[in-house]
Design goal:
Oligomer: single chain
Largest sheet: 7 strands, parallel
Length: 318
């Protein structure tokens, strides 16, 4: 490149980045087109005349977010930097802070918001600051837990989020797993459940957690499963659940007797929601998260750095 051309690129970059002039101002001062200024700024970066460095933050985190988006065709990815010295509790708290902040930015008037439940979703909802909105509805997308294990009950989370958004809430009065297929069908087809199903058709955003492998003991609702259910899931190699629906390592829904007794949105319906947001972290959960991303059930993932790296590693092995 000629020296005078290089000098002009450097001058344009100096005026833009150091003097903080607009592209229109630079174009006027140098008597060139504004589109030429834009092209020259891009060229200055390509030629190494300008190097953009982000201080006080590791830009590799943004690169990892972009890699996940490209690999799985996601709409958005929000990652928390992993502090190797932090406790599991501190990591969960950091994830909740990030999720709460990100979710709040997405919320607007007239939205229908769906919630599943569990620790990750519950913590995130607790971290969402109030926002005055109009005509927002918050609804559950799964049935509730047993009376024994009622922490982070979906109705509690629905009520809490609706209160923060000045919105309307609808509740579910059935546990997520019913004793028989006939009972589940009766609830689904009941008049009381009709309103909830109508809201499910209009969902704009759904916030869900991801249940880990069967050996993962933190789940809030698996006490409702029978020994026969566990046996079936082991035989069919379940790797996790979302909206209380189990699937294998390929993301295939395990559509057996248990699924037919489950009260909740199907993962196929989840995939049709404009914004389906999964909040989950942990190396042991990466095997459960990856199939949901590969099959397109989630459009947004909020997780941490170590989990994201493990998800990519697992995906590359296939």
């Amino acid at each position: 490149m000629k020296e005078d051309k290089k000098k002009l690129l450097a001058k344009v970059a100096y005026m833009y980045y150091e003097q903080e002039l607009t592209q229109a101002q630079i174009a006027k001062e140098l008597a060139i087109y504004r589109t030429t200024v834009s092209r020259m700024l891009s060229q200055a970066k390509a030629e190494g005349i300008v190097e953009i460095k982000i201080n006080h933050f590791d830009a590799s985190l943004f690169e990892l977010e972009e890699q996940l988006k490209q690999t799985f065709g996601l709409t958005a990815v929000e990652l928390v930097a992993t502090d190797s010295d932090a406790s599991e509790e501190a990591k969960e708290e950091q994830l909740a802070e990030t999720a709460g902040t990100w979710i709040r930015r997405q919320l607007s008037d007239d939205m229908v918001i769906g919630l599943s439940w569990g620790a990750s979703v519950g913590r995130a909802v607790n971290k969402i600051d109030p926002k005055q909105l109009s005509d927002v509805s918050v609804v559950p997308v799964v049935g509730g837990p047993s009376h024994i294990n009622s922490r982070y009950h979906v109705n509690t989370l629905v009520y809490e989020l609706a209160r923060k958004l000045n919105g309307h809430s609808l509740f579910v009065n059935a546990t997520v797993i019913q004793e028989t297929k006939e009972l589940a069908e009766g609830i689904f087809n009941s008049k009381y459940f009709h309103d909830l199903k109508e809201y499910w058709k209009r969902l704009d955003l759904v916030i869900v957690g991801v249940g880990g492998p069967l050996s993962y003991h933190k789940s809030q609702w698996r006490d409702l499963l029978s020994p026969a259910d566990y046996e079936e899931l082991k035989l069919r190699e379940a790797v996790g659940d979302c909206c209380c629906r189990f699937y294998d390592s390929y993301g295939k829904l395990l559509n057996g007797a248990l699924n037919q007794r489950t009260i909740g949105l199907s993962i196929e319906e989840l995939a049709d929601v404009p914004q389906s947001v999964g909040i989950a972290r942990g190396i042991s959960k990466a095997r459960s998260i990856a199939p949901l991303l590969e099959r397109g059930y989630l459009k947004t993932l909020i997780t941490d750095q170590e989990t994201a790296q493990e998800i990519l590693r697992l995906s590359q092995r296939k």
